[in-house]
Specification:
By secondary structure, this protein is α+β, with helices and mostly antiparallel strands. The chain has two domains: about 100 residues, 3-Layer(aba) Sandwich (Aminopeptidase), CATH 3.40.630.110; about 130 residues, Gcn5-related N-acetyltransferase (GNAT) (Aminopeptidase), CATH 3.40.630.30. Helix 5 crosses helix 8. The longest helix is centred in the last third of the chain and has 15 residues. It is elongated, with a radius of gyration of 19 Å. The two termini are about 20 Å apart. InterPro entries: Acyl_CoA_acyltransferase (IPR016181), GNAT_acetyltra_N (IPR042573), GNAT_acetyltra_YdfB-like (IPR027365), GNAT_dom (IPR000182). It comes from Clostridium chromiireducens. It holds the Pfam family GNAT_acetyltran. GO terms for molecular function: acyltransferase activity, transferring groups other than amino-acyl groups.
Length: about 260
């Protein structure tokens, strides 16, 4: 079987139909990411790679499970199978390099946010901390630190981020200590990434950044989508007004 890069993703719509995942929408809408399939005209199997994530749909094919985009520089990826056949194939292909994990989907509901409550959370940030939106100086600082660069890493440069991205950070003495930003973007919204420097955790900083980012998104008529890596992230999302949807299977792959 040959693997083809798909430029016009319309042919993949049926394979990914009903999958409530904004990273998939980003690629299908041509905003970010790359798509591959077993055929350009009549695909039965498909792969979407965006950020650190990879989604498989349709019939399970080993060639797609092994496919790595030529511009993908990391040796780590999170693979998300549409069905059990893909799960088995990922396990057989990567063996001990694949770790099965469970992630937590959060419901996508437009009208669940309590604006007053979110504003109150933001206002609770007091000196020596301050909340600021990401500008060029902050973007460069965010990108220079390994703990924070995922906040903006999917954008080509600051100009790309300025046009399409959005984010808020908490600063102390001119240094970024927490942030919430658009990990990816799609036509109707963003997928949120939240990070806090290790020595500043459990101070409500991630909560404040999240609240600020949600308010800014609503102001711009963008939906702030949230997907949780762990139960702590679910709890944080729920404090901001989101509701848990379901647990789902994923595979963390090393030496990809």
């Amino acid at each position: 079987m040959s693997v083809y890069e798909i430029r016009d993703t319309k042919c993949l719509e049926k394979l990914f139909e009903g999958w409530q995942e904004t990273l998939i929408w980003s690629c299908m809408q041509g905003c970010m990411g790359r798509a591959y399939a077993d055929s350009v005209s009549n695909p039965m199997s498909a792969q979407i790679v965006i950020g650190d994530f990879c989604f498989f749909a349709g019939e399970a094919k080993k060639e797609l499970v092994l496919n790595k985009p030529d511009d993908y520089r990391s040796n780590f990826i999170i693979m998300i199978p549409q069905n059990n056949e893909w799960s088995k194939l990922i396990e057989q292909t990567y063996k001990e390099r694949a770790t099965k994990v469970y992630r937590y989907a959060i419901k996508k509901e437009r009208d669940v946010f309590d604006i007053k409550k979110l504003r109150k959370i933001v206002e609770e940030i007091k000196k020596p901390f301050s909340i600021q939106m990401i500008d060029k100086h902050i973007f460069n600082q965010v990108m220079s630190n390994s703990w924070s660069k995922d906040l903006c890493s999917q954008f080509n440069d600051y100009e790309d981020y300025r046009k399409r991205g959005i984010g808020a950070v908490v600063m102390k003495d001119g240094i970024v200590v927490a942030g919430a930003s658009s990990y990816t973007v799609y036509n109707e919204g963003i997928e949120i990434e939240i990070d806090t420097r290790k020595d500043y955790r459990r101070k409500g900083l991630a909560l404040a950044c999240g609240a600020k980012l949600i308010l800014e998104c609503l102001n711009k008529d963008l939906y702030p989508s949230w997907d949780a890596q762990n139960k702590g992230s679910v709890a944080l999302a729920e404090k901001l007004g989101y509701h848990f949807d379901k647990e789902y299977e994923a595979y963390e792959i090393i030496d990809y």
